[in-house]
């Protein structure tokens, strides 16, 4: 645990303020860590993933003895020190060759982890095409039904989306759409498609029958089509890699619940119709809030008109009448009159 | 007029930019993501992997781009900006939600009283300079009175009255008062227990209790000499009564006695608070009416009765 720092001047105060939690978060910063041994392939993968993630990427160029699935304390330390919430740890061992571990943090604690192995790797340099500008937001494409059903792939999708595209923005320049990161799976094995139908919780231990993951990065070309929507053409830009899923760590449910908490919607957003719908209210094109009011039927019996002496209800007269009627009344008529009288008394 | 040719041409154009799939693609424009939930076509996958991946990616991206281009746009220097809706996929946050700032004492009071906050402009118009100047800070307007070359001096002022120093002192007192209130607000938000919190571990707590007990035992005039002792209680060590010296100078004795007389002459503090009883009436009214005052309390209590009477 780092000691809490008290700012001594305005600059360090601003720097600390920038790290404080915000309602709309900054893009996540990723730290790329090399484990005790990384082969040539893993080094290249880390380098090019950094190129895609730049400028929100920090490289740890030295080797580190880090085993995220056994002890996450150093990750927590680095996360706090660098104000980063994503890690990519490259590690190549005999048992698990060419491994990459994606770690996602929440509040400087490990939320979830997913280990993948790199099977096939083609570098960006092999493709002689124009590369995307650093800092441009990529499009994301996921293709397989397992991204909706299988817990491992749901996690992978969420992790990759958070990694490349997690920042929430309110507008984007349409001319700046340059590249797409496409994540596709191999054909779904029969065991998984059958298992997902019968038992929704698939066996977590068996990773051998999970389909391979193909990650491709394409450059996007928008061609005029004669309509408002352009025609899209893709050219492979690289890097491209085939991954297999290995170990993983699911998020702690309590921590995940905290992490998924949303801020309360602002008044302006609620009026715009986001979130809870407000009835009978709308914002017109001038930006004015317009409401429709439904008035209930007016109760005229309680209307107070001008008070005059002559219109005053004679108390004695009513009393006399009421006594007479209630004494003799036995049929339905008498009861009706009784009710009317009671009403009048109430009003007077 | 035959429009079938134009229609066919338009349909052909539309066909190039629309994507037909068995299961419609899930597009999340807020995060620029498209998910294709159609099962993988094993035949073409095995035949030409790269071609198949590229074809599915193209279809997906086409659907995403169509969705993006149909969003409302605003123009900018670099081209049209599409206004993105909030994302439909929930991603976990990196840090917890920011905690709301606790209200200051003034804010609490203003809320109870229904006082609307009037925001002061940071700049004020300077008639002499004919420009906007800061209200405070470097070359701020609040220092004008200290810097002016001619100042009106009140008629009853002392000979050594320095008007610029008086103005500066007034300003500095205001700053000090504000800082003090700020510190009090901070202390209040950290809770009353922050200063007098019980120590965390048992040993510390025991030490603190012992110290408190020792203080109470020596707090009588006889330093606890005649107090009842419990079984096993140790005698406090190093406790000695202190006496004033028997011989003092005449002036010291005089001032000492005068101080006692002055104390006797003064009105007791409890009477000043309002009556001989222990209840502080002003404070009680303030707490019950939530800072609104006695008039509001009377109105509230009396108003209800008056209504009942009328009915």
Automatic annotation (TrEMBL), chain A:
InterPro entries: Brix (IPR007109), Rpf2 (IPR039770). Residues 1-16 have a biased composition (Basic residues). GO terms for molecular function: rRNA binding. Its main location: nucleus. Belongs to the RPF2 family. Coiled coil: none annotated. Residues 1-23, 306-348 are annotated as: Disordered. This is Ribosome production factor 2 homolog. It comes from Fomitopsis schrenkii (Brown rot fungus). The keyword DNA-binding does not apply. GO terms for biological process: maturation of LSU-rRNA from tricistronic rRNA transcript (SSU-rRNA, 5.8S rRNA, LSU-rRNA); ribosomal large subunit assembly. It is found in: Nucleus, Nucleolus. Keywords: Nucleus. GO terms for cellular component: nucleolus. Residues 28-254 form the Brix domain. Pfam families: Brix. It comes from the Eukaryota.
TrEMBL record, chain B:
It comes from the Eukaryota. Keywords: Nucleus, Ribosome biogenesis. Pfam families: RRS1. Residues 183-192 have a biased composition (Polar residues). One of its GO terms (cellular component) is nucleus. The keyword Nucleotidyltransferase does not apply. The keyword Nucleus applies. Residues 123-149, 162-182, 225-245 have a biased composition (Basic and acidic residues). GO terms for biological process: ribosome biogenesis. Signal peptide: none annotated. Belongs to the RRS1 family. This is Ribosome biogenesis regulatory protein. It comes from Fomitopsis schrenkii (Brown rot fungus). The lineage of its organism: Eukaryota, Fungi, Dikarya, Basidiomycota, Agaricomycotina.
């Amino acid at each position: 645990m780092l000691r809490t720092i008290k700012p001594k001047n305005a600059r360090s105060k601003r720097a600390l303020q920038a790290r404080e939690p915000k309602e709309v978060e900054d893009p996540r910063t990723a730290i790329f860590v090399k484990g005790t041994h990384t082969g040539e392939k893993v080094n290249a993968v880390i380098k090019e993933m950094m190129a895609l993630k730049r400028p929100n990427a920090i490289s740890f160029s030295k080797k580190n003895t880090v085993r995220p699935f056994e002890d996450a304390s150093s990750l927590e330390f680095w996360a706090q020190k660098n104000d980063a919430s994503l890690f990519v740890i490259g590690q190549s061992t005999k048992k698990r060759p060419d491994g990459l571990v994606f770690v996602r943090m929440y509040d400087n604690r490990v939320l979830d982890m997913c280990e993948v192995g790199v099977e096939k790797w083609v570098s960006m340099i092999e493709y002689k095409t124009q590369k995307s500008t650093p800092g441009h937001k990529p499009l994301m494409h996921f293709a397989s039904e397992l991204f909706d059903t299988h817990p491992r792939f749901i996690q992978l999708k969420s992790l990759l989306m958070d990694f490349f595209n997690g920042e929430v923005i309110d507008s984007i320049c349409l001319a700046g759409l340059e590249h797409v990161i496409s994540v596709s799976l191999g054909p779904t094995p029969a065991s998984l498609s059958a298992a997902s139908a019968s038992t929704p919780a698939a066996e977590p231990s068996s990773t051998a029958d999970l389909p391979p993951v193909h990650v491709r990065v394409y450059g996007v070309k928008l061609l005029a089509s004669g309509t408002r929507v352009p025609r899209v053409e893709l050219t492979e830009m690289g890097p491209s890699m085939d991954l297999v899923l290995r170990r993983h760590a699911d998020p702690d449910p309590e921590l995940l619940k905290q992490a998924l908490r949303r801020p309360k919607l602002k008044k302006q957003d609620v009026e715009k119709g986001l979130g809870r719908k407000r009835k009978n209210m709308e914002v017109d094109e001038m930006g004015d809030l317009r409401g429709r009011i439904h008035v209930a039927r007016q109760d005229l019996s309680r209307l107070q008109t001008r008070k005059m002496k002559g219109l005053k209800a004679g108390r004695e007269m009513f009393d006399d009448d009421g006594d007479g009627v209630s004494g003799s009344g036995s049929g339905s008529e008498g009861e009706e009159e009784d009710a009317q009288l009671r009403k009048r008394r109430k009003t007077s | 007029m035959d429009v079938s040719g134009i229609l066919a041409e338009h349909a052909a154009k539309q066909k190039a930019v629309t994507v037909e799939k068995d299961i419609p693609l899930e597009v999340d424009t807020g995060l620029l993501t498209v998910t294709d939930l159609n099962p993988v076509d094993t035949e073409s996958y095995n035949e030409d992997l790269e071609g198949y991946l590229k074809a599915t990616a193209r279809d997906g991206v086409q659907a995403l781009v169509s969705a993006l281009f149909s969003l409302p746009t605003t123009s900018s220097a670099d081209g049209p900006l599409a206004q993105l809706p909030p994302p439909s996929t929930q991603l976990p946050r990196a840090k917890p939600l920011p905690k709301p700032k606790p209200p200051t004492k003034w804010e609490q009071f203003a809320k109870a009283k229904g006082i609307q906050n009037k925001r002061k402009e940071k700049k004020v118009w300077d008639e002499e300079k004919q420009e906007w100047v800061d209200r405070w800070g470097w070359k701020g307007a609040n220092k004008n009175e200290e810097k002016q070359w001619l100042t009106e001096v009140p008629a009853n002022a002392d000979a050594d009255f320095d008007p610029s120093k008086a103005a500066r002192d007034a300003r500095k007192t205001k700053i000090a008062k504000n800082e003090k209130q700020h510190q009090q607000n901070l202390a209040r938000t950290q809770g009353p227990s922050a200063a007098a919190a019980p120590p965390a571990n048992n040993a510390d707590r025991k030490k603190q209790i012992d110290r408190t007990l020792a203080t109470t035992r020596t707090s009588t005039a006889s330093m606890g000499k005649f107090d009842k002792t419990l079984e096993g209680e140790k005698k406090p060590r190093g406790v000695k009564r202190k006496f004033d010296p028997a011989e003092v100078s005449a002036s010291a004795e005089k001032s000492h006695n005068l101080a006692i007389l002055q104390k006797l002459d003064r009105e007791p503090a409890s009477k000043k608070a309002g009556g001989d009883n222990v209840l502080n009436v002003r404070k009680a009214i303030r707490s019950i009416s939530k800072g609104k005052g006695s008039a509001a309390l009377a109105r509230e209590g009396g108003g209800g009765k008056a209504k009942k009477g009328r009915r």
